[in-house]
Amino acid sequence: MKILLDNGHGIDTPGKRSPDGHFREYAYNRYLAFRIREQLTAMGLDVQLLVPEREDIPLPERCKRVNKICKQYGSDQVLLISLHVNAAGNGKEWLNSRGWCCFTTTGQTKADALATCLYETAQAQLPGHRIRKDTADGDPDLEKDFYILRHTSCPAVLTENLFMDNQDDLAFLESAEGSQAIVDLHVGGIRRYLSL
Q1: Rounded to the nearest 5°, which phi and psi values hold at 102?
Q2: Tens of pLDDT along 100-130?
Q3: Which domains does the chain have, with CATH numbers?
């Protein structure tokens, strides 16, 4: 199984930072991707960063990279996790929205099982934090046709790892305990999915 980690955004992406400007989403997404890859690789798994560049690679190019790998390995032998940090506003003020969530495309897809595994580990890794979910269709993932999910041919999910414009969420993300919990959430969810 080939595991692709899509570290969202780039150094040149406008916005995508905390209201005080010190937290940059692109940098944190890359930090998460490197740490997740390090842990999974140590377990003998085949993990690749989709975007090793610092600049923001356009979504069509990201999808082209994924689909090229899918052709090489077979779509059922590839999975994609796109890593992000959420924001409720335009980055100019601190707001109250909080929590972790995972998106798939609309409808029942093979990605639903991966999302469910991530939700199960999120419950264990983020006690006391809001887990944002929609169980109307029988599983917890939120559904939205994000470009990176809709235009790739393997099971693909997008995680929003708390809110960078909420001071409590951000303090947790930046702590050693918090960043490790987010890494462990992804590592544990992927391992759980691979064991199905």
Answers
A1: -135, 130
A2: 999 999 999 999 999 999 999 999 999 999 9
A3: 2-194 (3.40.630.40)
